[in-house]
Amino acid sequence: MKNNLLTCLLLICITANSQQIRKFQIIDSATNERIPFATVNVRNQLFFEADSSGEFMYVPKKNDTILITCVGYFDKQIIDLSTGLSEIILVHKPIELNSVYVGKFKTIQVGITNAKKDFSMAASHGYRSEYATHITIPEEFKKYAIQRIYFRVYTKNAKTGNVNPVRVHVYNVNSDGSPGDDLLQTDIVLSSIILKGKYLVVDIPEPNKVLDQRSFFISMQWLNIQEDTIDYKQPQIAFKRSQNSKTTWMRQSNLLQYSWLKLDKSNLLVYADILVYE
Description:
The protein is mainly beta. The chain is about 5% helix and about 40% strand.
């Protein structure tokens, strides 16, 4: 009887220890610095981000498949985080060399400009929501660089300053018309915003990145972070109802394993300044 009791206690201790929450750090392989806001994907069912210091907490389960991703880095898949691993190393993708253009070039605006908003949405409307609008480049322009992005926002309660972290993406276009891979190599995460009138303004960290895609997507993605959350209601991005032009896609982690779906009757109001080279 005594031996049985000791065995039960031992099993309880082992089970409790195996279910213990642990802290992990995501590290750059070259600099040994932590990578902030990398995305953690558990079994393609649970999605969240590391915090601003590259750390996240998780209760590892045996044989869990974990995918760590971050813009500018190679994806890393790990099977079973319960083996004692505490640091996850990501390798930076090689920097692509750009063509160099010298001279004066004109700037044009592409996207949905000067449209009146019909409604707005914030992160509270969906778990880890992301909205992406398809933007087409005029046929006469062959080479260009995105300089700045403007998101129309609900400004009644908004102000320049700290907000819940959001990630801004520039995606290429998949064959089925949905958002594809990131076109920029630099991660854009906003934990504070700059408002210019009715727009949230985002300066592109790669203003000389030459693109030749005939179209691309611009998106805003609210991050699900265990720390650093300030106000999930900000920023609130604006939409225009439309029966004919359907250019915006969305995804939420509670829908179809975070797959893209095309919005039926509304478009995210966003446009960009592009510098035209050719």
